[in-house]
Every structure is written in C-alpha cells, then in structure tokens.
Amino acid sequence: MNANLDAYWMPFTANRQFKNNPRMLASAEGMYYVTPDGRRVLDATSGLWCCNAGHGRKEIAGAIARQAAEMDYAPSYQMGHPLAFELAERLAELTPGDLNHVFFTNSGSEAIDTAMKLALAYHHSRGEARGLFVGREKGYHGTGFGGMSVGGMPNNKKQFGKGVPAVHLPHTMRPDMRFSRGLPDQGAELADALDSIVAEHGAENIAAVVVEPVPGSAGVIIPPRNYLRRLRDNCDKHGLLLIFDEVITGFGRLGSTFAGYEFDVVPDIMTIAKGVTNGAVPMGAAIASGQIHDSIVSGPDQIELFHGYTYSGHPLAAAAAMATLDVYRDDAVFDNVRSLRDTYEDCAHELANCRNVIDIRNYGFMAAVELAPDAEAPGRRGMEVLNKCFFDEDLMVRMSADIIAIAPPLVINEEQIRHVFKTLGNVINTVD
Q1: What average pLDDT score do residues 133-144 get?
Q2: C-alpha span between 258 and 246 (Å, rounded)
Q3: Which of 81, 226, 298, 357 could join 74 in a cystine, given CB atoms 3.0 to 4.6 angstroms apart?
Q4: Residue 239 and residue 380: Cα distance in Å, rounded?
Q5: By the 8 A CB rule, do 270 and 289 touch?
Q6: What pLDDT score does 162 carry?
Q7: Residue 7 domain-assigned?
Q8: pLDDT band for position 2 (cuts 50, 70, 90)
Q9: Do 402 and 287 reside in the same domain of the chain?
Q10: Residue 380 gets which letter from DSSP?
Q11: How high is the mean pLDDT of the chain?
Q12: Using CA atoms, how far apart are residues 407 and 100, in angstroms rounded to an integer?
C-alpha cells in the first residue's frame, strides 16, 4: 500500500496509534476479510454489527449494479420512486405490532434522531409541550446530538456540550449478574427506576424513553429477564412513548427478526440500520406506529413533518435492502442463529477461567468477554487482544476499552464458532 494515511481523519479511532500500525482490509468474501498482503482474516464482528449475511453477497451486489444502471438517484422531497415504497411495505410486514410507517434515513444515528423528532412532533400534534427524553446509562444511539444526548457513554459527549435535554435510567450490568448465561434471572426491578424519574420530572414533560434492547457498543449488556416487558408496562402506566433502537439487534442477531419479537415487547417507534442492507449501502429507518403517524399526518393537506434527508430511500440503498431481505429469507439466515446459539453460548463461557476475565455475557450471536483493566493503563489489555488477534491469529474482534465483543456474521458455522472462541481464549491468556 502506497497511500499516504495523513489526510483521512478516522472516526472513533486513535488516529496516531492506528497510523503507526495500520489494520488494513482490502477485500471480503463470506466469513473473511482479506488484507492487502493476502491474509484471510475471520470476521467475528460482522464488519461493524452489519454484515449479517456474510461478505460479498453477489445477490446484493447485482441488485445495486442493476439499480445504478437504471436510475442512480431520485429525490425524496415531493417525488418518489417505486422501490422505496415497495421496501417500506416489506419492512412494515416484518416489524412487530402496528409499526407500519417507515421513515428512511442513511444511518442509525440519523434514525434515532428521526425517532426523537417523531416523538416530539407527535406530542406537538396533540398540543403537548414535552421536551425531555429518558435514555439509559451505557446506551449508544449514534452520534447526532439527539442520539448523543440519550446515550449513556460519557466520552461521546464531553467534547460537545449538553445537547438535547435528557436523563438516564441505570444500566443493567451488576456484579451479581456476572457470567449469566443468556438473560440474567435477577434485575427486572431496575426498570422501576422510571417511576422515580417521572416523579421528579413529571410524565407531562417526558417525550419518550429510548433504549437498546441489548446494548452493543458499550459491551453487550444483556437485559434481565422480563426487564423490557416491565419497562414497557411502566411506560404505559405513565403514558410515555417507548423507542427501541434495533440498529444492532435487528435482522436476526438475537435469533428473531427483531428483539421486539424475541422479548415479546412492542415499542411505539423502532430504529433500524446496519443489517437492513447487510452493510452494502448506508441506510436506516425510523418505523412508527399507526397512532403516531396518523396524529402527525393530519390537519391541512400540506407538509406535515419538516424533516428528512437528501438520500432518504436512496434507490441503490433500497435495491440493496430488498436483495438483503431476500437473502435472509431464502437462506434461512436467522434459523442458523437459533440452531447454533446454544453452542455459541457454551463456547463463550468456556473462556471463564482465562487470564484476567471478570465477566462473560451473551445472547443470540452476541457475546462479550470483559477483562480486568490494568490499573495504570485502562484499555491496554483490550487493545493488545485486538492487535494480537488481528496480526498473529487472523481473527477480527471488536474492543471497547477492556471488553472484547464477538458478533460474527449470522452465517457462521459450528466449526468457525469454536475456532473464534478458542483462538480468543488463547490470545487472552498471553496478555499480562
């Protein structure tokens, strides 16, 4: 590789550290990335939680190419193209409950900001001046000012000010839940913290509660059994909207199409991105209930919502999404998760006695191995594991500080699952 690395300011990256020792990817197919020097690296991260059907799917690439040749772009303001409407209808058929109105975005960050705007617009349409949002500690909802605000990761906000008014529920990661297999049996009562927030701020001032069903970016934080059901009930008790951020959990990651099905909880609005196009073209969406849509889209026959994006429902993204949904259906991709998630869980928890491991968390094809931080250099062990896996073992994992996350493409087989966790365990045992 001859390119100068200086010009590209990389996101969420220690730029100087990376450019001193770059981890470069040149191509991808199936379960593997290929480096510029020809090494095949097993992808245990689905790219970035998004390539659920594996890499290099010719069905998706072909659909994008055909659409690009037919029509590269169509405006979404006062204009439309048929494929966006077909995709919206298809997504509405897949979503739980009456979540049947799809507002297209280009990313998960845009999707969550859109969902928050929909909540505000809904209350405005009812003559209510609600402006406060409830997020959750350790939550991640993208990098827009709305998502940053309801998110509960301090480093994502400290450089940027207060953002949108928000308060936060406690996270659901306690010492007594360590090494739980799947859903912890204890902790559902943590959802009752919403009662205290309502008592302090007033339900009449709260626009919505925003949570990830399973927080991914902060290190795969598994909800206690019945926690999400209890949160839904508490929202209903106080008359609050519930927004599920399914950017990571959507499209089979947990075994069901969406977490709403997996946990039998239907939010008022949900957000999607990543897996909707298998990562091939940027796309996201906020999907709202009929009640929210109909309340906003009422009154005079004119623009009802002054919001949107130049690339909402982009033709290439819509083509990629339609092909992706075909792949999920035709290859029974989500069935693979359900058939192998017990093996996945067993393999993850076999690392419990590895060096410095203080917790293992898992559900579906999500797992986290948490390492005790080095008191003098927090995050060092996680970064060392990441680098040793990539450079020495041809394995790509994800790290957040000292937490190693494993979230492979959903087409992974049993042999590959066992290889991923065995290799990770061996690497962990080499780190001081």
Answers
A1: 97
A2: 7
A3: 81
A4: 45
A5: no
A6: 83
A7: no
A8: low
A9: no
A10: H
A11: 97
A12: 28
In a domain, 3, yes or no: no
* Token digits of residue 276: 């909707």
In degrees to the nearest 10, what's the CA dihedral of 394, 399, 405, 406?
-20
Q: Let me know whether 271 and 394 are in one domain.
A: no
| CA separation for the pair 227, 204 (Å, rounded) | 24
pTM: 0.97
Measured in residues, the chain has a length of 432
What is the C-alpha to C-alpha distance for residues 411 and 52, in angstroms, rounded to an integer? 7
Count of domains in the chain? 2
CB 397 within 8 A of CB 405: yes
Residues 204 and 281 in one domain: yes
Alpha helices in 21-107 (DSSP H): 46-49, 58-70, 82-94
Tens digits of residue pLDDT in 32-43: 999 999 999 999
pLDDT level of residue 406 (50, 70, 90 thresholds) = very high
Judgement on whether residues 282 and 336 belong to the same structural domain of the protein: no
Q: How far apart are the first and last CA of the chain?
A: 33
Residue 387 and residue 380 in contact, taking contact as beta carbons nearer than 8 Å: no
Indicate whether 414 pLDDT > 90: yes
What pLDDT sits at residue 24?
96
pLDDT tens per residue across span 257-270: 999 999 999 999 99
Which pLDDT does position 311 carry in this prediction? 98
Q: Are residues 158 and 291 in the same domain?
A: yes
pLDDT tens sequence across 209-229: 999 999 999 999 999 999 999
| Domain match, 45 and 86 both | no
Do residues 221 and 292 both lie within one domain?
yes
CATH number at residue 234: 3.40.640.10
Considering just the CA atoms, what is the radius of gyration of the chain in Å? 21
Asked if 352 and 296 sit in the same domain, the reply is no
Q: Is there a domain that residue 41 lies in?
A: yes
Residue type for position 233: D
Q: How confident is the model at residue 274 (pLDDT cuts 50, 70, 90)?
A: very high
Query: Could you give the CA distance from residue 121 to residue 146 in angstroms, rounded to a whole number?
Result: 14
User: What domain range is 347 assigned to?
Assistant: 15-53+332-428
User: What's the one-letter identity of residue 385?
Assistant: V
In a domain, 343, yes or no: yes
Residue 323's contacts (CB-CB under 8 Å, 6 or more residues apart) are 57, 59, 60, 62, 63, 64
